[in-house]
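Recall from the previous lesson that a structure prediction takes nothing but the amino acid sequence as input. Here we apply that procedure to Phosphoribosylglycinamide formyltransferase from Methylobacterium variabile. The sequence below is the only information supplied.
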Amino acid sequence: MSDRADAATRRAKVAILISGRGSNMVSLLEAARAPDYPAEIVLVASNRPDAPGLARAAAAGIATEAVDHRAFADRAAFERALDESLRRHGVEFLVLAGFMRVLTPWFVEAWAGRMLNIHPSLLPLFRGTHTHVQALAAGVRLHGCTVHFVVPELDAGPIVAQAAVPVLPEDDEDALSARVLVQEHRLYPAALALVASGRARLDGGRVVFAEGSGAANGALVAPALG
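The prediction returns the following tokens.
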């Protein structure tokens, strides 16, 4: 096989970090089953050994590893152990999927431009937790989710992709959350494909898209995912 063919068929090695059931993890694993998907999920790791998502990943034939944060004296020691595990598996990109640990600047910088997170709001609106309650309280007519590169500041990284949904007059937190979650499951695999293939990359604090990446005006907006 030629070098050009090797380059065309090579898939980036990706790890998914979870703390719970791994809802978005499942959508990523399903997407990565396609032979033309540009990322291969080589590891699912969790800071909680009892995370249900670990069993789901193992059942799908994916390597799993638990790095229990409670077994370490401090956050720095935990993150060094996690970093060693990721590098041992040859991981090139990280995807956070319900990973409930605030990462230190050391870890974030070690994976700068190679770590993605999904947040359940249209950032920069409604950072932090309880985003659907925040959206309802603010009376916005559009809500959604954002895939962004991780930076030391929480929920502040450069945006790769966003998906918007309407906020309906009868919505409560559960109804709005369910509508956003549908789009999360569509958006995250599409955004990872952009990054893993090199069609979207971090450059000087902003996301640069390759020509023909499918990004409209610098963003990939659901439901027009193609």
